[in-house]
Amino acid sequence: MNGSTPAVVCRDLRKRYVTRGQPPVDALVGLDLVAHAGECLGLLGPNGAGKTTTIEILEGLLEPTSGDVEVLCMRWGSDDEALRQRLGISLQETRLADKLTVTETLKLFRSFYRNGCEPAEILEVVTLSEKQNARLDTLSGGQKQRLAVACALVGEPELLFLDEPTTGLDPQSRRDVWDIVRRHKERGRTTLLTTHYMDEAERLCDRVAVVDRGKVIAVGSPSELIHRIGGEHVIDFALKNHAATAIVESMFSDLPSVRDCHADAGGFTLTVGAPHECIPALVQRLSTNQLELARLTTRHVSLEDVFVSLTGRKLTAEELADKTP
Amino acid sequence: MKRYSPNWELFLCRMRMFYREPDAVFWTYGFPVLLTIGLGVAFRTKPPDKVPVAIQDVAALSDVLQTLEGDPVFQTFVGSVAQCESWVRKGEADIAVLHTDGTEYRSDPTRPEAAFARLKVDDAIQRAAGRSDSVAVNDAHMTAPGARYVDFLIPGLLGMNLMGGGLWGIGFVTVDMRLRKLLKRLVATPMRKRDFFLSLIGSRMVFTVPEMLLLLVTGWLLFRVAIEGSLVSIAVVAGVGALSFSGLGLLLASRARKIETISGLMNAVMLPMWIFSGIFFSSKRFPDVVQPFIQALPLTQLNNALRAVITDGASLMSQWMPLTILAAYGLVSFVLALKWFRWT
Question: Are A93 and A160 in the same domain?
Fold first, then answer.
């Protein structure tokens, strides 16, 4: 496939949910997105940001209120059958039939595609071979999720959509799912996934689109996004008697190499270029003002910090109700 | 590369989902058979109870005692006058035969059995004494297979089963798949929607075969319920009925997003048919004003057609009316269901 042709393009996507007796909810307010062929693109954002709405519109399961969508150079409404043959989809939550076995389920999904791989092959990829004759109601959460991904892969799709593929899974199961996605990418195929785990986005995705309140607020590789907020390091600290003293963020923003300063309930977060210059100056500043440290830690900048710096909110703090019906 | 047929895989999956669910298997096959056995036994044809008679223990009544003891219609108690009166008072005997001035019948006239017992006892005694009937009569008994309650019941239960199976087997399963987001997952594949509906209906038709055979065989083995019509006619009527109710089931399930919704809808649709459509008793017992409504119910038509072919041995052609009505119900339901069907 030509690497210059994008796998997914959408422009000015809007979606309004209208429920009788309730004010309309705008889930998407002009979302633009491009996924290049062969890359793994992550939609990162808090719950309720519009990730699932976006991915379901791209999957052809939801109609946008307005906007333009092109998937593999085709359009929903005119090329549905051809598109479905080339897409692999795993929904946020599907409970497949409990009474069927792993192989029976895969054979069913395989039968819908003109081309694809044998159920036994795909079971090896998702490391479920020893469970091939087990009924689904005997599988663990991680095994069920791997089977769901296997059902998405059994038609050998060019483009794989995964909606929150590791939500609720234990760490080992999450790594197993990541391995499956990496293998798909190694074959030169495209993946578009949603997640609210920044570590997932950082480790798995070539590029990340940060989604908040119905639009994309930043796009780039994880390292690009991290560089964009200036510093490489973060200093978190808290003060004794914090509440009693009126301390403002501006007190620290002029310290050496500080790019950004945020106050939150627990204390302050400084994004800095050179911690070895900043920390002595910070300690100096505090003692001049007769303030005492309660704690101080340093770490590398993460996508979480990118999100905070872009929105002023924490990625995981806001657990809005999912707007999709 | 191995070829997979989506029709066949969908059908197989539906079959497996059914027979691996013991509850569903019991309610489809076990319960109707138990119901047939229970009702068949409860309403079985049995000989009338014996007439209990108390007789005074005196030599003058020895001929009477001999007569009544020798007649299988009577159950005799022999004792003193006081004992005989006590038996009648407690209801253990319907009448007492005593010897006072002559032969005396003593009974409680407020008990309806007493009058019957008096007729029977007197008849036996008078005949034994040489009375002859002046008019010769013959008794004919309506206990031949084909005219009993159980013969009426079996076709009705078949119809009820076809209704329940079609509505639950299609409606409930569809809503359950929608709830699991399995419908949404399926529609995200290149699966043809037509194949999905065909597999649902096809598997339902296959489940119908053992259902019908079980009931007919149970009826024949236990109660000698005769099958007068041809098996082909019965199969065609049952098949059209199953299709019709499958269509209704699909229609009811086309929008519902909750199990509570679909259960309510099903019960609302089935309840009038349980009452009016002649499962347990004839629908003709309802007043004429409601007959048009009753005749418009699909189960009434199905039960009528089933009774006609099973009990009366009617030809398939003679049942074109009910079959047409059933087919129309099925067809209209399917078209509307496909139009309104919600995959997500």
Answer: yes
Query: Is a pLDDT exceeding 50 seen at residue B47?
Result: yes
Residue A279's domain comprises 230-300
pTM of the model: 0.79
Cα distances (angstroms) measured from residue A95 to each of A48, A91, B170:
22, 10, 19
pLDDT tens for B238-285 read: 999 999 999 999 999 999 999 999 999 999 999 999 999 989 888 888
Q: Could you tell me if A36 lies within 8 Å of chain B, comparing CB atoms?
A: no
Q: What is the SS3 assignment for A265-289?
A: CCEEEEEECCHHHHHHHHHHHHHHC
Q: Which of A226, A243, A270 is a domain's end point?
A: A226
Residues of chain B found within 8 Å of residue A155, distances taken between Cβ atoms:
189-190
Candidate from B1, B4, B187 with C-beta closest to A107: B4
Residue to mutate among A98, A112, A114, with most B CBs inside 10 A, is A112
State whether A190 and A136 are in the same domain.
yes
A95: nearest CA in chain B? B180
State whether B95 and B211 are in the same domain. no
CB contact under 8 A, A108 and B9: yes
Contact (CB<8Å) B17/A99: yes
| Domain shared by A277 and A234, yes or no | yes
CATH number, domain with residue A240 = 3.30.70.980
**Cross-chain Cβ contact A111/B5 below 8 Å:** yes
Q: Is the pLDDT of residue A318 over 70?
A: no
B220 in the same domain as B113 = no
User: Domain boundary at B95, B128, B161, which?
Assistant: B128
- Write out the residue range of the structural domain in which residue B62 sits: 51-128
Considering the domain boundaries, does residue A174 fall inside one? yes
CB-CB contact of B300 with B294 (8 Å): yes
User: Is the model's pLDDT at A298 over the cut of 50?
Assistant: yes
Q: What is residue A300's three-state secondary structure?
A: strand
In a shared domain, residues B123 and B149: no
Q: Which residues contact A129 (CB under 8 A, 6 or more apart)?
A: A120, A123
- Report yes or no for ipTM above 0.90: no
- Collect all residues of chain A within an 8 Å Cβ-Cβ radius of residue B12: 104
Q: Rounded to an integer, what distance in angstroms lies between the CA atom of residue A136 and that of residue A99? A: 6
Which positions 244-263 of B are in contact with A (Cβ < 8 Å)? none
Phi-psi region of A267 (alpha: psi -120 to 50; beta: other; left: phi over 0): left
**Calpha distance A229→A302 (Å, rounded):** 10
pLDDT at residue B43 greater than cutoff 80: no
Q: Which of B102, B128, B154 finishes a domain? A: B128
SS3 content of chain B, % helix, strand, coil (to 5): 65, 5, 25
